[in-house]
């Protein structure tokens, strides 16, 4: 368990945040400038907050009231930056050994062979890091952090500098890191898609304050977190792979509702997280018929939230979970949408991107 309580004032901004991060991957989620990186740098010891207390397991890293401030090199933390920040003149093997060099001899370490296998970098060991792709560099950076025997891994928007193809490459490795390595992760992101796929706990931030804490499904499906017009709004559903069909579709069971997605390379029985963007859902008051869309989720309207612009977020309680639907004010008025009404959410199969589908970790 990581406990964080810090307060720090800038000329035009004050951070005041308290939260606990349980085992797993805790995502600090919010817009740029909300205070996420300030928190991570305070945990790392790269920033001294005006006041605060930070405890990792039973080890006090910072307590301003008692005058305790461990320097960064004594905190036993692994830090993964936006760029790999590898030594370009060293090979991948030497970069990995550099991380291991900082591990205490008395501290249990991850097995180097296991880390190399986990990250799929065995074929890169003798290559110099300067010639690696962005995704390969990030995998090596993850390995270097793991081999330093950290109590906690900090990841500050580690996918922000990568294109979509490289993000798709790296996301499964963070899933494996979350599920297979007994080291808590504090992960910074403003990408709802990343957070939906990876986080076991989400700490949502706005203007230096924590506005919500909970599971990815609870936080990201809360219409109060994002304004009604925000394109980041969406839902996180849990589903189980039921079958792979010859026409290239994978069939899922989501609380008794069938979902069809483009083929997902996961075995039958595997539990998945599926993020569905609110703007990719069509809302109908009547049960739809004669549509090309294969996914129809029946439900009851439980919230209608109007923003400053033309958008409205409708929260639909379905057997699969809460589904957010983004429509216009005009559509909401024409449909006479109100709390308690029955409605149907319609999702095109091809609307769900591969990066919005991940394993649950359970």
Description:
This protein has 362 residues and is α+β, with helices and mostly antiparallel strands. It folds into 2 domains: 2-220, Rossmann fold, CATH 3.40.50; 234-359, RNA polymerase II/Efflux pump adaptor protein, barrel-sandwich hybrid domain (OB fold (Dihydrolipoamide Acetyltransferase, E2P), Beta Barrel). It has helices spanning 36-44, 92-101, 112-119, 134-146, 164-180, 192-198, 216-220, 329-335, and strands at residues 2-10, 13-21, 25-29, 51-56, 59-63, 68-69, 77-80, 152-156, 185-189, 201-206, 209-214, 234-244, 249-254, 257-262, 271-277, 281-284, 295-306, 311-318, 321-328, 342-347, 357-359. It has a 6-stranded mixed sheet, sandwiched between helices. Strands 2-1-4-5-6 form a 5-stranded antiparallel sheet, with helices on one face. A 5-stranded antiparallel sheet has the order 14-13-12-15-21. Helix 2 (92-101) runs parallel beside helix 4 (134-146) and helix 4 (134-146) runs parallel beside helix 5 (164-180). The relative contact order is 0.12. The model has no long low-confidence stretch (mean pLDDT 90).
Q: Which labels suit this protein?
A:
362 residues, OB fold (Dihydrolipoamide Acetyltransferase, E2P), Rossmann fold, five-stranded antiparallel sheet, alpha+beta, six-stranded mixed sheet, cell inner membrane
């Amino acid at each position: 368990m990581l406990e964080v309580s810090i307060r720090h004032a800038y000329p035009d901004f004050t951070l005041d945040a308290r939260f606990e991060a349980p085992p797993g991957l805790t995502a600090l989620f919010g817009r740029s400038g909300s205070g996420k990186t300030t928190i991570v740098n305070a945990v790392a010891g790269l920033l001294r907050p005006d006041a605060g207390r930070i405890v990792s397991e039973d080890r006090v890293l910072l307590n301003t009231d008692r005058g305790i401030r461990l320097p960064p090199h004594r905190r036993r933390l692994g830090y993964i930056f936006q760029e790999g920040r590898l030594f370009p003149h060293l090979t991948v093997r030497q970069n990995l050994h550099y991380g291991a060099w900082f591990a205490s001899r008395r501290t249990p370490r991850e097995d180097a062979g296991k880390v190399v296998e986990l990250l799929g970098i065995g074929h890169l060991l003798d290559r110099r890091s300067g010639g690696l792709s962005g995704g390969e560099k990030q995998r090596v950076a993850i390995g270097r952090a793991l081999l330093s025997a950290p109590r906690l891994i900090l990841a500050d928007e580690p996918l922000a500098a990568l294109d979509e193809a490289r993000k798709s490459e790296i996301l499964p490795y963070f899933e494996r890191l979350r599920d297979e390595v007994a080291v808590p992760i504090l992960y910074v992101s403003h990408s709802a898609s990343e957070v939906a796929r990876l986080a076991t706990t989400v700490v949502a931030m706005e203007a230096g304050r924590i506005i919500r804490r909970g599971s990815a499904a609870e936080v990201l499906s809360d219409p109060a977190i994002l304004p009604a017009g925000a394109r980041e709004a969406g839902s996180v559903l849990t589903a189980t792979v039921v079958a792979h069909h010859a026409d290239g579709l994978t069939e899922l069971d989501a609380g008794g509702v069938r979902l069809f997605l483009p083929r997902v390379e996961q075995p039958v029985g595997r539990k998945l997280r599926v993020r569905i963007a609110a703007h990719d859902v069509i809302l109908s008051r009547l049960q739809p018929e004669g549509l090309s869309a294969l996914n129809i989720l029946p439900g009851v309207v439980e919230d209608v939230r109007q923003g400053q612009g033309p958008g409205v977020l409708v929260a639909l309680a379905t057997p699969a979970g809460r589904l957010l639907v983004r429509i216009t004010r005009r559509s909401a008025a024409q449909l006479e949408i109100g709390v308690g009404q029955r409605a149907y959410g319609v999702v095109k199969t091809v609307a769900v991107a591969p990066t919005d589908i991940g394993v649950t970790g359970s």
